[in-house]
Specification:
Layout: H1 8-16, H2 24-38, H3 47-53, H4 68-86, E1 94-96, E2 105-107, E3 124-128, E4 131-135, H5 139-151, E5 178-182, E6 186-187, H6 195-210, E7 215-218, E8 234-242, E9 246-255, E10 261-270, H7 275-301, H8 311-318, H9 329-345, H10 350-366, H11 373-389, H12 394-406, H13 410-423, H14 428-436, H15 446-458, H16 466-479, H17 483-496, H18 500-512, H19 516-524, H20 535-546, H21 554-567
């Protein structure tokens, strides 16, 4: 068993490198994890103990609502990956923290395995620095590999090895998926040395997009020159310009057949100094791009006969994504029917089970006739089947999390969103909802509220997800008792998109602020799209169900009960 003193040299190297940024706490966290493991207490490394012992949390610390341990250990994990990719000495011990645990692993580099003489032209694998890297026999290949490592001084392609390995049998190879060709980003920087930044960013973006199993990523191919069996639907291209202080990244999405520009966006960032900051840049770009691709794919399929579509294509049409959608009972019922058709074609198609689970509980929440025990039971059944059949698909788990939220399983849905982010850190909605779901019916801290507002402001002005962020910000304001700010947020959300849920929240605020006639008009305006919309259903069923795990939901419940009482003589049912 290795002794802690034997790690001192590598710990000193980690401390003086730039991978931990300026955070002394992150180094203290590393020391704590190593000491606990070496001294035989590794099985006691739980989130609660780490939060108390290292991260200055009090005895009332609840890891299910405060994700600081997961976040800090994740950042430490990434920092170690960067360190061993760029700074480590081969003879030194290797420290890594596997995904899904807080227990560190300490390893010595393995000896190089001599190749069998009958296979001396084949690639050999060995574990080195906690990463799987191919080692080739010929001197030319070794030289190429070394030059590749030196080339990525600023933005290291080694990150593509990060995360959980996916077995070949589990990899997503689906000709029905959204085929996307990625063109290398153009370097517009005045200094040619910055080519390394663009190359590293591009490779990181490919990693981020590859985590979305709705996409089939292809090398830079256009429809005219495609020689393979899959012709790209879309092409992503862009440019990067680095100045002394900033990086400006332009991303463009084209229809690969017509050449039409579907979407373009400009992001500007401070020049990153750590791997974590570089990750955040990639995540921002990918999280803006992912929903645009899914929305564009829906546009291609929406006018086709559902009977002619594959289960995967039916899933794409059925699943929720900010953007192309209609807030009507008919539309949402059709989405459920599309998912059901996918399951008729393939009863074991996990993604369709996840959509159906979400749609059924959503309809039960907003449409009173749909709220039956049979509907709830069906939603739970499909949720369980989706989890059994597709436990590694981030999009599936996101649908499961949303269905859990509608049923009031706030803790479970938050944990599911954390798993979504482990599988796909660039999942835009999971990033936001994982922080706001825990405060559905209870007051958030000012820090959480400010995080939500900052997230909303970080989105591009035309991002279709903003109605979600704004209405949840309104919900957070309500739970803090700031009804005027809540109303402002809901008004802005309503301008973008509205559902029965957001309309009822908006109406409850208008009523609370003495504007009950406006509240009645707002609800009546939804009658054409949602003929059964009812404040009483929300006050008696939807909100009590959603708040069942919250002991301090009284103010939220009262808000909806007051609305129901005020609307009794203003709306005919």
């Amino acid at each position: 068993m290795i002794k802690y003193s034997e790690l001192q040299t590598v710990l000193d190297d980690i401390r003086v490198s730039s991978v931990l940024g300026k955070s002394d706490r992150r180094f203290q966290l590393l020391e704590y994890l190593l000491k606990e493991e070496i001294e035989g207490r590794g099985d006691h490394l739980k989130a609660y103990a780490i939060g108390i012992d290292v991260l200055d949390r009090g005895s009332d610390f609840d890891p299910s609502t405060d994700s600081i341990v997961r976040v800090e250990v994740g950042r430490l994990r990434d920092a170690l990956t960067l360190f061993y990719a760029k700074y480590a000495v081969p003879e030194h011990p290797v420290i890594r923290i596997p995904k899904g645990t807080y227990r560190p692993e300490i390893m010595m580099p393995l000896d190089v395995v001599s190749p069998d003489e009958n296979q001396n032209q084949q690639v050999r694998q060995r574990a080195l620095f906690g990463l799987m890297k191919p080692y080739f026999i010929t001197q030319i290949t070794i030289l190429v590999a070394l030059l590749g490592l030196v080339g990525f001084l600023f933005w290291d392609d080694i990150y593509r090895h990060r995360g959980e390995d996916i077995k070949a049998s589990e990899r997503h190879i689906n000709p029905d998926a959204i085929a996307v060709s990625l063109a290398p980003y153009t370097n517009l920087s005045p200094d040619e040395v910055d080519t390394n930044i663009i190359t590293g960013f591009f490779n990181e973006l490919k990693v981020a997009l590859s985590r979305n199993r709705a996409l089939l990523l292809l090398d830079n191919i256009d429809a005219e020159n495609s020689t393979g069996s899959v012709v790209p639907d879309y092409q992503v291209s862009g440019s990067v310009r680095k100045t002394e202080d900033t990086i400006r990244i332009v991303t463009k999405l084209h229809d690969n057949v017509t050449g039409a520009l579907i979407w373009a966006n400009l992001n500007q960032f401070d020049v990153p100094t750590t791997g974590i900051e570089r990750d955040e840049i990639v995540s921002t770009v990918a999280s803006e791009l992912n929903p645009r691709l899914l929305s564009a794919s829906k546009e291609l399929l929406i006018d086709r006969d559902p009977e002619s579509l594959s289960p995967w294509q039916l899933y794409v049409l059925a699943t929720w994504v900010p953007g192309i959608s209609k807030s009507t009972l008919e539309w949402q019922s059709e989405r459920a029917n599309l998912a059901q058709l996918a399951l008729i074609k393939d009863p074991n198609f996990g993604p369709a089970h996840s959509v159906l689970a979400d749609k059924l509980i959503y309809l039960a929440s907003v449409n009173p006739p749909s709220n039956t025990e049979a509907t709830l039971a069906r939603s739970r059944f499909h949720r369980q089947r989706a989890l059994e059949l597709s436990p590694r698909d981030a999009n599936v788990l996101f649908n499961i999390a949303v269905s859990q939220w509608h049923e009031g399983m706030i803790k479970e849905s938050t944990m599911m969103l954390e798993r979504v982010l482990e599988l796909n850190p660039a999942h835009e909605m999971a990033q936001f909802l994982s922080r706001t779901f825990p405060y559905t019916c209870s007051p958030p801290s000012e820090e959480i509220l400010n995080e939500a507002i900052a997230f909303d402001q970080s989105l591009s002005s035309d991002n279709p997800a903003r109605w979600v962020t704004l209405t949840f910000i309104g919900m957070l304001h309500i739970n803090r008792g700031d009804f005027s700010k809540a109303l402002t947020a809901e008004e802005r959300a309503y301008q973008i998109y509205h559902t029965p849920d957001t309309v009822m929240r908006y109406a409850s605020l208008l009523n609370h602020l003495g504007r009950s006639d406006e509240a009645a008009s707002l609800i009546k305006s939804q009658k054409m799209n949602w003929p059964n919309i009812s404040p009483a259903h929300f006050s008696d069923t939807t909100i009590p169900r959603r708040c069942i795990q919250s002991p301090d939901a009284a103010s939220m419940l009262d808000l909806y009960r007051d609305l129901t009482e005020a609307m009794a003589d203003k709306i005919e049912y």
